[in-house]
Amino acid sequence: MVSFQLAGRTVVVTGAGQGQGTAEARLLVEAGARVIATDLAADVPAELAALSSSSGGALVYRQLDVADAAGWSGLAQWIQSRGWRVDGLVNNAGITQRSRLLDASVDDLQRVYEVNVAGALLGIQALTPLMASGSAIVNVGSVAGLTAHYPVAYTASKWALRGLSQVAAMELGPQGIRVNTVHPGFIDTPMTASAKPVFRRATLAEIPLGRTGGVEEVAGVVLFLLSPLSSFVTGAEIPVDGGQSGHGGAKSVSDALR
Asked: What are the E-state strand segments in the chain?
């Protein structure tokens, strides 16, 4: 029976050192995959160290700056040297920048773009040659990529990532490689923990489910998109946002009329 089980498959997860990335790595290990978890830190982050020690070698950590082409090349060579292929790539690494439109600089846009968009492109370019038919790529976008969210550099990067994902799905489809995008909403992560209380209150007011999401809820969708259960799904964009992007701001109007 087709299942979530990924035994014998190797999946690379970027930005795996905390929050959402760690949850994705953990769930993939539990599904039987070998996970190559990457992040900026030279030493294995604490959460991953615990997972690595209990996984029986199913999780391997590698330092990686996703904006560094040479780093990606080195990772690909390291994987090849072990005789592994790549069955999945999760482009999860991302940064934010909260400048408003009239305050944002070109440097702000460039810095966020290099990680959120160019990092995903470099990963696809480096690891696709190691993939066979049946492999899958999941790019982690954001509800900001589906709306006119206010932090312009971050929002622009996530809209750009959508375009990259669609082109990749089209170009890699003939090789049997699927490419899909997950768009998390307001998820409890170290990144969102720094948001101002007023931002949290206003955002919760726009979420039909009335709560923040958990990292495991995003990881579950990522697992589905990497598994054989989604074998005919490519070019899809799946919001994991409690309904936030679905109403186009109508919730505030509806609530005001009650």
From this structure: 10-13, 34-39, 59-63, 88-91, 136-140, 178-184, 237-240
Q: What are phi and psi of 108, to 5 degrees?
A: -60, -50
Residue 209 inside a domain? The answer is: yes
The CATH number of the domain where 177 resides is what?
3.40.50.720
According to DSSP, residue 213 is labeled B
Distance, CA of 89 to CA of 72 (rounded, Å)? 12
pTM of the entire structure? 0.95
Active-site choice (61, 113, 150, 154): 154
Residues 162-174 have pLDDT tens digits of 999 999 999 999 9
- C-alpha to C-alpha distance for 231 and 127, rounded to whole angstroms: 20
Provide φ and ψ at 48, rounded to 5°.
-75, -35
Give yes or no: 61 in active site.
Answer: no
Q: What is the DSSP letter of 1?
A: -
Contact 78, 72 (CB under 8 A): no
